[in-house]
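Q&A log
Question type: sequence-to-structure
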Amino acid sequence: MVDVVLLFGKILFLALLYLFLLAAVRAGIGMVRTGGAKRQPKGLAVTVIRGPKEITGVTLPLVGPVVIGRSPDADLVIADDFVSSMHVKISPSADGATVEDLGSTNGTLVNGQPANRPLGVSAGDLIEIGTNQLKVVRS
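Response status: OK
Response body:
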């Protein structure tokens, strides 16, 4: 009687093992057909293209709001007399990013136009803060 139960257990174990392998192979074939795992769409980032040499070339990914200014509390500190302590905030949005001047003395330009209200930006747009220039790029 014990031999029959053990034989039945072995057969059940092998059947489950083959079902698992079949499911794994089918999933692998599906990944090959679709080109692998789904890739996350790339987000936006801001790159300093003109400014103090210490920060030129620095890229900040826009995973949350980024505050730029002269204050040490800013996310990106720019030591420039034409930059206010909390100059501008760049926030990711559903269709790109939003640039909002935080009441700076010298203002902010987006593609050469004053940012008097929150403006939407996308990859390739230029943001000017005093004598500094930042570019919105894909990260």
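Response note: The CA atoms of residues 68 and 135 lie 13 Å apart.
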